[in-house]
């Protein structure tokens, strides 16, 4: 089992920034992929960004240029820096770990006010 604990969500004004963190613990194997997904009210959960153990990244088009995903493999921690936040970024953000199967964090609320 893998446990994921997210932090860093909150309320921010449009144009502001947030940094989300997610620490993984338990049976961590490499190589793996970690990432962030989000789910807004009434919408499907969508991928925001992923990063492999080797540092390869992938972003959804709507956050390209505004988000940076990074990780510290020694700490089994993944980060998501989001800048120029928009009201449409409001969602619950979930951390994700993938090795053979997916594991999910409990989610952290991000609310962007206009």
Which properties best describe this structure?
114 residues, mainly beta
What does this protein look like?
There is one protein chain. This protein is mainly beta and 114 residues long. Helix content is 0%, strand content 59%. It contains no helices and eleven strands. It has strands at 2-7, 10-13, 18-26, 33-39, 46-52, 57-59, 67-72, 77-82, 91-99, 101-104, 108-113. The strands form two sheets. Strands 2, 4, 5, 6, 9, 10 and 11 form a seven-stranded mixed β-sheet that branches. It starts with a strand and ends with a strand. The model has no long low-confidence stretch (mean pLDDT 96).
The succession of helices and strands, N to C, reads EEEEEEEEEEE
Strand content: over 45%
Shape: globular
Structural class: mainly beta
The radius of gyration over CA amounts to 13 Å
Helix count, DSSP H or I runs of 4 or more residues: 0
Task: State mean pLDDT (0 to 100 scale).
Answer: 96
As a percent range, the share of helical residues equals: under 10%
- Report low-confidence residues grouped into runs of 5 or more: none
Structure summary, number of beta strands: 11
End-to-end CA span: 40 Å
Main sheet, how many strands, which sense, barrel?
7 strands, mixed
Topology:
Blueprint: E1 2-7, E2 10-13, E3 18-26, E4 33-39, E5 46-52, E6 57-59, E7 67-72, E8 77-82, E9 91-99, E10 101-104, E11 108-113
Parallel strand pairs: 2-11
Antiparallel strand pairs: 1-3, 3-8, 4-5, 4-9, 5-6, 7-8, 9-10, 9-11
């Amino acid at each position: 089992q893998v446990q994921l604990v997210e932090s860093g969500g909150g309320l921010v004004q449009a144009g502001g920034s947030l940094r989300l963190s997610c620490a993984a613990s338990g049976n961590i194997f490499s190589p793996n992929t970690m990432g962030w997904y989000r789910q807004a009210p009434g919408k499907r959960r969508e991928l925001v960004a992923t990063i492999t153990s080797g540092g390869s990244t992938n972003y959804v088009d709507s956050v390209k240029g505004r988000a940076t995903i990074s990780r510290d493999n020694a700490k089994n921690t993944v980060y998501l820096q989001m800048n120029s936040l928009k009201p449409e970024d409001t969602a619950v953000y979930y951390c994700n770990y993938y090795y053979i199967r997916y594991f999910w964090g409990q989610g952290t609320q991000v609310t962007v006010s206009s």
